Amino acid sequence: MKHRFKNTCQDASKLLKGVNKLSTFMTRLNKMAEEQEGNGMGWTADEFKGDGFEALVEVMLNAMSADKRIGIRNYAPWQGKDMGIDGVGRTNELNSRPVTVQIKYRTNTQKDLTTEDGISNFVAMSTTADGFENAHMVFITTASGVNRSILEQMYNNKTTVFSIKELKKFIDNNPVFWDTFRSEMGV
User: What is the tens place of the pLDDT at every residue in 48-70?
Assistant: First the structure.
């Protein structure tokens, strides 16, 4: 795992021991985020939650890179300026092309993401960053999805969305994934 969360999470065992469902992970992540706020590490609770979810997504994408439902291989966190792209990879098609990924953690899993969540920055960066102009754009979120009108009218259906519903299908009660995540986090 390349994400900084591996080093900034002070008690990965408390977060991950015995976890086999996304909902349990989210409950623990939310609690730890509130507990760590103001501990001198410099992260807000929201940054801690976002980093924890980004780490989970990194492990999921790399552990499931052959899964055609996801279709992403060689995933790594974005090394450029934090202006919307959280990670990059390649499609797992024969004629592979770049992939850009925006990861949004939301405690409210019943609400769609909208432009108020800063998602337009992702699309703008994805279409202008050198080498990624024609990238496949993917949103991965714990929200219920991305607002349908935005997807259709603003982004012309050129993005893929994996919401909480899809994520649960991929990782809930998936011991190989959770054991891999624990191992990557040093648990």
Answer: 999 999 999 999 999 999 999 99
82 residue type, one letter? D
Q: Which domain holds residue 180?
A: 5-184
In the chain, which residue ranges form alpha helices assigned H by DSSP?
Answer: 5-8, 12-16, 22-36, 45-63, 119-128, 148-149, 164-171, 175-184
| Amino acid residing at 71 | G
Q: 0.85 exceeded by the pTM?
A: yes
CATH assignment at residue 159: 3.40.1350
**How many domains does the chain fold into?**
1
* Helices and strands: H and E segment counts in the chain: 8, 7
Backbone angles phi, psi at 185, to 5 degrees: -90, 0
Q: In this predicted model, what pLDDT tens digit does every residue of 106-145 receive, in sequence order?
A: 999 999 999 999 899 998 999 898 888 889 999 999 999 9
